[in-house]
Amino acid sequence: MTGASRRIAVFGAGYIGLVTGACFAELGHRVVVRDIQPERIRLLNSGEVPFFEPGLGDLITRNKERLAFTLDVEEAVRDAEAVFVCVDTPPTASGDADLSRVWAVVDALRGASHLVAVVVKSTVPVGTGARVRAALDERDLGHVGYASNPEFTAEGRAVEDFLRPDRVVIGASDDAVARWVADLYGRLDSPVELMDVASAEMVKLASNALLATRITFINEIATVCEATGADIGHVSRAVGLDHRLGPHFLRAGLGYGGSCFPKDSRALRAMASNSGYPFQLLNAVIEVNELQPRRAIQRLKTELDGLKGRRIALLGMTFKPGTDDMREAPSTIIASRLLAEGATVTCWDPMAPHTDGRQEPWSSATRRPDPLGAMTDADAAILVTEWPELTDVDWTAAARLMRNPLLLDGRNLLDPAALLSAGFTHMGVGRGTRRPR
Ligand SMILES: NC(=O)c1ccc[n+]([C@@H]2O[C@H](COP(=O)([O-])OP(=O)(O)OC[C@H]3O[C@@H](n4cnc5c(N)ncnc54)[C@H](O)[C@@H]3O)[C@@H](O)[C@H]2O)c1
Ligand SMILES: O=c1ccn([C@@H]2O[C@H](COP(=O)(O)OP(=O)(O)O[C@H]3O[C@H](CO)[C@@H](O)[C@H](O)[C@H]3O)[C@@H](O)[C@H]2O)c(=O)[nH]1
User: Fold this and answer.
1) Which residues pair with 205 in a beta bridge?
2) Cβ(220)–Cβ(228) under 8 Å?
3) CA–CA separation, 394 and 246 (whole Å)
4) Pathway it acts in (predicted)?
């Protein structure tokens, strides 16, 4: 591979589009990123990143000579050799992926006959590439290549994941197009898997579904641990030491959230159902995950003998640490359920965006600037997101500030023995309830 410098247009300046644009610029390509949100492009042109992603701001600044941002399709595509489609593909009411934004990009490419390739990075159902290919042909872009190049980066470590991927997956029916796209990554020392378009689309959905299944499996084991007296900490660590299983994605918790696992597992289930196949295992994964935060609330309800009138502190709101992303965060289900039970909710998070009062359920919760503030006068605290800041909390002081020092550690972040000696009753996921002497 030559790793030659190319000219690329990226459609979508969200988590994936911006990381893709900035990382391609870092690899020596010239990139124009186009979005439809004027405020987003204004921020980027004034040197600001519209969301938090570690290292992304520095990368954009370092590569500003090779990186431009625009609202204008013509400006983005004029000199480009390839268009990368990185727009959002949210779920519809039926759970299928909404591809309207992908189609909007395809429509915008009318007349762009100079392109070498249109490359879809957005997560899409299997068969989308074939439909886009047909649409390009209908628009007299039959000679423009098509490739699927799914993205596997995780939020909070997306830049690192992009520049050091486990693998780059490229699906194309034309070998020359596949090699051309692979060459964009030529400066990376990573395996490149070339395949047909449908298989590349499936790799993405299968990877996320398998990761979600592992999390759900360990959450189910955690529930059995709670019922039988085993400790999930010992169990998942020792299970993960089996080299055939490995240690990753075996952390029991309050269920998986985020912009991908919930959406993509439902999209894969819908895709299977649409073809007449009920994907029963995935169905169970989705159901168990939806129950997981509700189970935690039920445990708390039993422990407190009801939640009505109780004050509950939520520690962490984002779907995981290291991001400001609230999409499908388990905290939103937990807060809604607590409010529905008649509890008062206080919360803390170092990074979750401040809402304008319209966004349920946080509009009814009181946000505090630090964990101790959120726990003051609370009847219980739930550790929802494993922010490292929570390991530095003075838990003895927290126990004194709370009306009832009870912690449900929903991510098994803290040492139960330390909590007990601070005066807390401790509940963990996959661990029984332990009370101070
Ligand atoms: N977020 C992740 O970690 C991640 C990881 C892998 C794959 N993906 C997939 O990548 C895709 C994008 O996800 P995201 O999290 O970046 O979404 P996002 O919502 O953060 O960003 C999407 C961006 O596309 C823009 N957009 C919509 N229509 C457009 C158009 N016609 N032209 C230009 N821009 C347009 C939106 O304004 C928005 O800024 C999705 O399919 C997602 O499933 C996401
Ligand atoms: O052992 C674990 C690991 C993760 N989670 C939860 O799973 C969710 C997703 O976490 P993570 O995978 O770290 O974050 P994402 O940024 O959503 O990344 C996933 O989704 C992306 C979008 O498709 C993929 O590209 C990534 O490969 C895939 O890891 C979060 O709620 C985590 O708390 C657990 O409960 N236990």
Assistant:
1) none
2) no
3) 34
4) Nucleotide-sugar biosynthesis; UDP-alpha-D-glucuronate biosynthesis; UDP-alpha-D-glucuronate from UDP-alpha-D-glucose: step 1/1
Tokens standing for 178? 């596949």
Is 136 buried (19+), middle (13-18) or exposed (0-12) by CB count in 10 A?
Answer: buried
User: Which atom of ligand 1 is closest in space to residue 37's alpha carbon?
Assistant: 37
Show the tokens assigned to 164.
Answer: 């050091």
Catalytic residues: 260
Q: pLDDT grade, residue 329 (50/70/90)?
A: very high
Write out the two tokens for 216: 């759900």
Does ligand 2 have an atom closer than 6 angstroms to the CB of 162? no
Q: Is ligand 1 within 6 A of the CB of residue 36? A: yes
Whether ligand 2 lies within 6 angstroms of the CB of 217 is answered as no
Q: Which residues of 99-124 are buried (b: 16+ CB within 10 A; e: fewer)?
A: bebbeebbebbeebeebbbbbbbbbb
Q: What is the pLDDT of residue 363?
A: 75
Pocket test for ligand 2, best of 53, 317, 320 (most atoms within 8 A of CB): 320
Residue 97 DSSP SS3: strand
Q: Which of 166, 207, 215, 290 most suits a substitution to test ligand 2, by most atoms within 8 Å of the C-beta?
A: 215
Range 203-227 burial, b when 16+ CB lie within 10 A, else e? bbbebbbebbbbbbbbbbbbbebbe
Instruction: Please report the sign of the dihedral spanned by the C-alpha atoms of residue 283, residue 384, residue 296, residue 427.
Output: positive
Q: What is the domain partition of the chain in residue ranges?
A: 7-195, 261-434
Q: For residue 154, with 0-12 CB atoms within 10 Å meaning exposed, 13-18 middle and 19 or more buried, which class applies?
A: middle
261-434 CATH fold: Rossmann fold (3.40.50)
The answer to whether 412 and 434 are in contact (CB under 8 A) is no
Ligand closest to the CA atom of residue 219 = 2
CA angle (277, 88, 202) in 5-degree steps: 35
Interval 150-207: pLDDT, tens: 999 999 999 999 999 999 999 998 999 999 999 999 999 999 999 999 999 999 999 9
CA dist 58 and 52 (Å) reads 12
* Homologous superfamily of 7-195: NAD(P)-binding Rossmann-like Domain (3.40.50.720)
